[in-house]
């Protein structure tokens, strides 16, 4: 399998993802410059964290117009797997592949810390290595990670079993403690915590490996 990692101007976790997917998990991984339209030969795509286009408008608002994302829409329609981490999650909501929006943290401050999470759905293959109720510890690093959506959208996410991860101690004010969600089909996952930073027992633990293994499912 081959994994593509999109690189936007301002991405700063693209190399972290490649180090984790290729170096720790043995997945063939290549970078995709934001101007490319060719996703041929890829089995999954990762939108990494960072500050795409400097976040000068809204997080992910400019990135959603990148040529590579035009191809990504077709990739998803054809069943391709897409993982959006932190800024990548923000991009997925701006693109309309996931519902809701990510806004300024409740305390209006940047948060960088290990965070305990609960697995709330194992419906999709992203969390195939876990059971509902399992606890994970992953690092977060964001200033605009407060997930918000309408009441109707929240009910739909619950009905579709699309809420994958919830914060045990909500650090940013996200509605319903949401840390990660999937689309209804289950091939797209967006989450604010960084699984790529928890793939080595000497650096952040290994709780992120199970999520990245979902790229192979």
Sum up the structure in keywords.
single chain; 217 residues; alpha/beta; Rossmann fold; 5 helices; 11 strands; 21% helix; 27% strand; globular
Molecular structure report:
- This protein has 217 residues and is an alpha/beta fold.
- The chain is 21% helix and 27% strand.
- It has helices spanning 14-24, 67-77, 87-95, 151-159, 209-213; strands spanning 2-7, 28-33, 44-47, 81-85, 101-103, 111-119, 135-142, 146-148, 163-167, 178-182, 188-191.
- Strands 2-1-3-4-11-10-9-6-7 form a nine-stranded mixed sheet, sandwiched between helices.
- Strand 1, helix 1 (14-24) and strand 2 (28-33) form a beta-alpha-beta unit.
- It starts with a strand and ends with a helix.
Briefly, what CATH class?
Alpha Beta
Structural class: alpha/beta
What is the overall shape?
globular
> Strands of the biggest beta sheet: in what spatial order?
2-1-3-4-11-10-9-6-7
* Alpha carbon gyration radius: 15 Å
Q: Any idea what the CATH superfamily is called?
A: Class I glutamine amidotransferase (GATase) domain
Number of strands: 11
Mean pLDDT: 94
